[in-house]
Amino acid sequence: MKKRALKKKSRKRQQTRVVTIRVTELEYTIIKKKSQSTNTTISNFIRTAALGKELSSVIIVPEINHEAYTKLSRTNSNLNQLAHHLNSARAIGKPRSYNPDALIQMVNDLYMYTTETRNMLIGKCI
């Protein structure tokens, strides 16, 4: 009989302890705004700060750019899926009516363009 490998619990399932803190209305508002500006949950924001991890590793998106940044993130995700599909089709020699190398190059160019635009939205110049 084969032994099954134990699945590693997800990070969320490993977090079994609940910590409750009391804050003033002003403190809550500040914490909430900061967590939103770093595009993370309040719990993750407080955990990161309490454990002394650098919050700078969390991407801070100015509120005015948040919607555009989110849309570009989704576009990049779709481009990654498309590139994966194209590379898979090319690897198995699937018949095609297009030039896969040219198409992959266009997808890569679009990905680079959207990544550069996202970086500009957060004030990160390349």
Structural topology:
Elements: H1 11-14, H2 25-37, H3 42-50, H4 66-91, H5 100-121
Short description:
With 126 residues, the protein is mostly helical. The protein has two domains: 19-57, no CATH class; 63-121. It contains five helices and no strands.
Shape: elongated
What's the story with the biggest beta sheet? Answer: none
> How would you classify the helix and strand content by structural class?
mainly alpha
Taken together, the total number of domains comes to 2
**Beta-strand segment tally:** 0
Taking Cα atoms only, what radius of gyration do you get, to the nearest Å?
A: 21 Å
The quaternary structure here is single chain
What does this structure look like?
The protein is mainly α. It is 59% helix and 0% strand. The chain has helices spanning 11-14, 25-37, 42-50, 66-91, 100-121. The longest helix is centred in the middle third of the chain and has 26 residues, at 66-91.
Top keywords for this entry?
5 helices, 0% strand, 126 residues, 59% helix
